[in-house]
Amino acid sequence: LLLLLLVLLLLLLAGAAAPRRGPGLRGCPGVPRPSRARRPGAVPPPYPNGWYRLLDSSRLPRGTVRSIALLGEQLAAFRTQDGRAYVVDAYCPHLGANLAMGGRVTGNCIECPFHGWQFRGEDGKCSSIPYAEKVPDFAKVRTWPSCEVNGMLLVWYHCDGIGPTWAVPEQQEITTKEWVFRGQTEHFVNAHIQEIPENAADTAHLTFLHGPSILSGTDLRYTRSKLWDFMKHIWKAEWQPEPEPNKHCSQLLVKHHATVFGKRFSLLDLTVSARQVGPGLVFLIFEHAFLGQGIILQTVTPLEPLLQNVVHKIYYQKNMPVIIPKFILKAECIQFERDVTIWNNKQYLPKPLLVKEDTMIQKHRRWYAQFYSERSLKFMASENLDW
């Protein structure tokens, strides 16, 4: 069994988890980009209200500006010399220049590269126009509420312009560096954002899609091959929403074990507690009997109505060999890419045909509906997508 485990580790780690998967890369060969090849269905509004990851804090050093596209918007993120990070609309209200393309940080302001207008990060008001005697009171750029938690810069979105109604929780073990960063993966998924967290309530798919051995890979044509049938993953999961004051959160408890030739292989026993916080953040805490603890932070950020940027960042006990979190991340990546194949090619059904055992799916949809408002932007599918 130990030799088999060694072979398993070598096979999985021989090719490290791909750090970046582009749109349409997961799926059957020959299928064009899914967003052009299928009807999306009657999808919910594309941008739920909540916190979304912009970028890692380390990618925004003091005095720098970054251009970011998400939620159908173009934004500029910048960090002042005193360490404060701000997010504003990218386009200068004067003549439309992109503040992130050649703009620079001056004091607590971002300076437009076209005419030198300066806008304060905290409220967006224009504080200086080099050639004007007076700055108009109404001269300002839109600011976005933001925060930095767990090594990430996040931005708050609400279709009605309402400020943050809940805070992003801090993972203490990351802040104290008890758990250290051990790698990440990044995927671009062609689906509505709601499809991704809905998997938590769809416990029936775990056995069928994620039961076959991770050795069988991600191509769904071969995952049920007899070659890898000697190993299976057994899942037991339970999903529940949290009560007030954390109604924006839900909990998924997953117990996993594996069988090899029909015998339980206890070395792969794992308990995962996944906490969904709002529409785009998931905290997956791993606990193993003697391999310790760690967490995968999953962030889902809508770039366009049917294009999601999904990042998984793993932090693990620093006294554990690096190969352990690398193995966990690789295994998680394989299982996730099986889901991506489904998401990239499926249609959203507002009234799916469900059986009694699927009741958690409807419960999840009712819970997730809190992130939409009456004024939420509606998805408008173009009749001709050949543009």
Automatic annotation (TrEMBL):
Keywords: 2Fe-2S, Iron, Iron-sulfur, Membrane, Metal-binding, Oxidoreductase, Signal, Transmembrane, Transmembrane helix. InterPro entries: Cholesterol_7-desaturase (IPR050584), KshA-like_C (IPR045605), Rieske_2Fe-2S (IPR017941), Rieske_2Fe-2S_sf (IPR036922). GO terms for biological process: cholesterol metabolic process. Its cofactor is Fe cation. Residues 1-17 form the signal peptide. It comes from the Eukaryota. GO terms for cellular component: cytoplasm; membrane. SUPFAM superfamilies: Bet v1-like, ISP domain. It is found in: Membrane. Its EC number is 1.14.19.21. Gene3D superfamilies: Naphthalene 1,2-dioxygenase Alpha Subunit, Chain A, domain 1, Rieske [2Fe-2S] iron-sulphur domain. It catalyses: cholesterol + NADPH + O2 + H(+) = 7-dehydrocholesterol + NADP(+) + 2 H2O; cholesterol + NADH + O2 + H(+) = 7-dehydrocholesterol + NAD(+) + 2 H2O. One of its GO terms (molecular function) is metal ion binding. Pathway: Steroid hormone biosynthesis; dafachronic acid biosynthesis; Hormone biosynthesis. PROSITE patterns: RIESKE. Residues 52-155 form the Rieske domain. PANTHER family: CHOLESTEROL 7-DESATURASE NVD, IRON-SULFUR DOMAIN CONTAINING PROTEIN. Belongs to the cholesterol 7-desaturase family. This is cholesterol 7-desaturase. It comes from Crypturellus soui. The gene is Daf36.
